[in-house]
Give the backbone structure.
Amino acid sequence: MDKEKKIIGLVGPMASGKGTIAKYLKEKKGAEVFRFSTPLRDVLKRLHADISRINMQNISKALRESLGQDLLAKVIAKDVEDSNKKIVVVDGIRRWDDIKYLKDKKGFTLVAINVDSKIRYERMVKRGENEGDNNKTYEEFLSDHKKETELTIPEIMKPADETINNNSDLKNLYNQIDKIINE
């Protein structure tokens, strides 16, 4: 590969726009995307269980407790290493262990996404990605942020290499992403 691989790690609270950024980079820049939730969704599908936020949180916790806190980080790091794409996106960083094997890799950039909680709530209900999301109240949404999988996100966002403000429209979001990719 003639050019250094760019590894973009996305961290932000639920419904902050991580998936939108990943999709944009995949479609417009040819990036390969790896999500921490993919192996969890795969396990739940195989078990014929509901792919709900609570089930993903529970299966993640169970797998990490039984097979190591860095289990998913190892899977993602191997996927990133094996990718032949010039841009690789790691979507859904939630804890320090998630970037344990990526943070020191050449070309890695941790990108934090900030968005007002009301805007995130409206986006989550509208997209309805996980079962039950479109029926959630704002109070339930805020309560979800107190779950184990969400608690360390603000701490990981602080030392990010880049920060995106996603309170505006898609054009503004894409401009901020392009600036980071082109640096």
About this structure: The chain has a mean pLDDT of 91.
